[in-house]
Amino acid sequence: MTAEAGLPDTLRDLPGWAPDAVELADLELLLAGVYRPLTGFLGSFDAAMVIAGGRLADGTPWPVPVTLAVPKELTAHERLVLQDPEGVPLAVLKVAEAWQDPTSQGWRLAGPLEPLRSPAHGPFHSLRRRPDELDPVDGPVLAVAAREPLHRKQLGQIRQVAEQLGAGVLVLPLLSGEHDESLVRALLSVRKELPDGTRIIPVPLPSRGDHERDLLLRAHVAAAYGASHLLAEQEAEGTAVPVVVPEPWAYDADVEIWRPVARIEPDHVQAELTPERLGELLDAGEPVPDWFTPPGVAAELARARPPKHSRGITVFFTGLSGSGKSTVARGLADALVERGGRTVTLLDGDVVRRMLSAGLTFSKADRDLNIRRIGFVAAEITRHGGVAICAPIAPYAATRAEVRRMVAAAGDFILVHVSTPLEECERRDRKGLYAKARAGQIPEFTGISDPYEVPEDADLALDTSAMTPDEAVGRVLELLVAGGWVAPE
């Protein structure tokens, strides 16, 4: 964790740290001045006050705790170089406080930031701007903070509200790390359908999982970029700029246009395309109707969510040693190759240990690292439309959930629990591992001296003591065919 590349000589000996995705977004917005009056990451008292009442310790309204998590060993340093995921140094944190989060017990560092360079990671970075880089706009500005593409209804509502306010429009694509490129392309494709002079400025702002606080933060970001109003689906109090809720719109099937519901005869209102129905169309590879969204947006939706039969997927087997994971996983890989039509990669636990994770021990930390490596490779295979079949023990629920998140950002994830009882796994033990574990010769052995956390989110459970390997493979294939990922024979 030593920071070296691209640093002045006076900073080369400082430790370095790459924040997670949310913290990295916060860092970029802190350095850009978007989070003013904040100049760095919050300390324990400010963070507690924000969580409890939405205000900093000095009474300034602030919606979310902006904190930096670090390993305990970094809390002894007075300065820390913060880097992007590629190791490029972005800023120096002058540590004012090291504190422990009372909920997670994780360590946090607080203090002001000294910028080193502007962040340059992420898609469409050339479109990003600091607020102080924008030319001022005369008159009101309506901000639209978008996590999803804008369809014909939203485009009409934006035009209506902008006309009512006499305002220009500022679209802020909120980047979250999932399909960011597709979101920006979709918004750029409809710029011609928005008022002249509309500006599109991507902003790294992942959701915090709290709708009300997310809205308050979006309003603050909009205000920092010069907006006078924020378009949103619900009203809110205490926002940095007024929130405008648009009038309800619907598709008038009689004249085939979108317009305010109040102007449509009730029997002419066409039912809106729900997110669930939209997902079904994309999964099946069917066209998205033009009355719902412009062609450019439809193309980006299809690119971000390909049909299931060509979409990348990871089938992740988990279970005790000797449960039959490798046998079923290998049988599934062979069956898919025999059927054809998909690129298949088998990431068996033992093979991965030799090739990808050589040198790792069987400590909990190293086992978790081994699973993360498998998850990373599986996510990349999935991202490129392949089928990744993984068969590690993966005993810990939190690590399996981490892999699910990695893969889900790229495609689909199926968890198969090979639930063969421990007694049967021991009976099959050709390597004598269970006997050695019971004799104390192998420490931290899953199922004996270390726990196996049974999945509560498995898509399928297979007890190979009650079925043949071919039957187990058939059960997985049935699931993949029913889900649309594999074509029926």
Topology:
Elements: E1 16-17, H1 21-31, E2 40-41, H2 44-53, E3 68-70, E4 79-83, E5 89-94, E6 97-100, E7 107-115, E8 141-146, H3 152-165, E9 168-175, H4 180-189, E10 199-200, E11 203-204, H5 211-224, E12 229-231, E13 243-244, E14 249-252, E15 257-260, E16 269-270, H6 275-284, H7 295-304, E17 313-318, H8 325-339, E18 344-348, H9 349-355, H10 364-383, E19 387-391, H11 397-408, E20 412-418, H12 422-427, H13 433-438, E21 460-462, H14 469-483
Parallel strand pairs: 1-4, 8-9, 8-12, 9-10, 9-11, 12-13, 17-19, 17-20, 18-19, 20-21
Antiparallel strand pairs: 2-7, 3-7, 4-5, 5-7, 6-7, 14-15, 14-16
Helix pairs in contact: 4-7, 8-14, 10-11
InterPro entries: APS (IPR002891), APS_kinase_dom (IPR059117), ATP-Sase_PUA-like_dom (IPR025980), P-loop_NTPase (IPR027417), PUA-like_sf (IPR015947), Rossmann-like_a/b/a_fold (IPR014729), Sulf_AdTrans/APS_kinase (IPR050512)
Keywords: ATP-binding, Kinase, Nucleotide-binding, Phosphoprotein, Transferase
Protein name: Adenylyl-sulfate kinase
